[in-house]
From TrEMBL:
PANTHER family according to UniProt: BETA-LACTAMASE, BETA-LACTAMASE-TYPE TRANSPEPTIDASE FOLD CONTAINING PROTEIN
Catalytic activity: a beta-lactam + H2O = a substituted beta-amino acid
Family to which this protein belongs: Belongs to the class-A beta-lactamase family.
Enzyme Commission identifier(s): 3.5.2.6
Protein name as catalogued: beta-lactamase
Any Pfam family matching the protein: Beta-lactamase2
Length: 291
């Protein structure tokens, strides 16, 4: 028994020091950058890591993941299928915001399934769709309340995409911490939040996301299964409020980890911001893929 306890202690000490090497490597990436960078990781539903988690980071479009969770909860409670359709009026499509849906169907006045709306919101980060879902299905306050019901208070969802575009300061009213976001992604991988149809749909949709290919996925093996949601702001006087990416990685050995990398108030270029996220993601992958 003593030998077994000694072995466990040695393994714990070894894990501690090897994780410290990872943390030091991440700190080395961010130390000279003109930005605040936060990192949260959960490995295999157990081991956690965080850096600069004490700050409140603007979510920007990462909150479309939180919104999707609230929408799926709404569908399940109301016994609505993913094929339920909604009518999009012309006035629901603002031509002055980022919206692939508007580019494809600018005249509006059509029916579209909630499944497709969530695809546009998550995979393509469509602002018009997010505004529509907040307006007609689950508003920001209800979304925040639902996320808190899942076990985290470290979230604030106060403003829609439209409201954020109207006032620079509104971007700071939607915030979270990196580890809190990693925890939410961990929940959808390891806990039963919704019935299987809804949960599988969300995971598959996150895997299809094609925004921010140069961020979390940028330096990872191309055949690795990654699901994620990006979020970034415009610049005000050269400062970017937020440049984020968060999601999960499924390792070939059957294990998995979730991660959130948030950049706040950056004076760096978009290319440097993306490289920070990509390098940190690569360090995390290299570490956990060898455990």
């Amino acid at each position: 028994m003593k030998k077994f306890i000694t072995l466990l202690l040695l393994l714990s000490i070894n894990l501690f020091f090897s994780q410290k090497i990872l943390i030091d490597s991440i700190q080395n990436v961010i130390k000279d950058k003109q930005a605040t960078v936060g990192v949260g990781v959960i490995y295999h539903n157990n081991d956690t890591l965080s850096i600069n988690n004490q700050y409140l980071y603007p979510t920007m479009s990462v909150y479309k993941f939180h919104q999707a969770l609230a929408i799926l909860n709404y569908l399940e409670k109301n016994k609505l299928s993913l094929n339920t359709t909604y009518f999009i009026k012309k006035e629901d499509l603002d031509p002055n915001t980022y919206s692939p849906l508007f580019k494809e169907r600018p005249e509006g006045n059509f029916n579209i399934s909630i499944k497709d709306l969530l695809y546009y919101s998550i995979c393509l980060s469509d602002n018009n769709v997010s505004n529509y879902l907040f307006r007609y299905l689950v508003n920001p306050a209800q979304t925040e309340d639902y996320i808190k019901s899942l076990g985290t208070d470290e979230i604030s969802i106060k403003r829609t995409e439209k409201e954020m575009s109207q006032n620079h300061d509104n971007q700071y009213l939607n915030w979270t911490r990196p580890l809190a976001t990693a925890i939410l992604f961990n929940k959808i991988l390891n806990e039963k939040i919704f019935k299987e149809e809804y949960q599988d749909f969300l995971i598959e949709t996150l895997i299809k996301t094609n925004t921010g290919e140069n961020k979390i996925k940028g330096l990872l093996p191309k055949d690795l299964i990654v699901g994620h949601k990006t979020g970034n702001s415009y610049r005000d006087n050269g400062i970017k409020v937020a440049d984020n990416d968060a999601g999960f990685v499924l390792l070939p050995n059957g294990k998995k980890y979730t991660l959130a990398i948030f950049i706040m108030n950056s004076k760096e270029t978009d290319e440097v911001n993306a490289s920070i996220i990509a390098k940190i993601s690569q360090l995390i992958y290299n570490y956990y893929s060898q455990l």
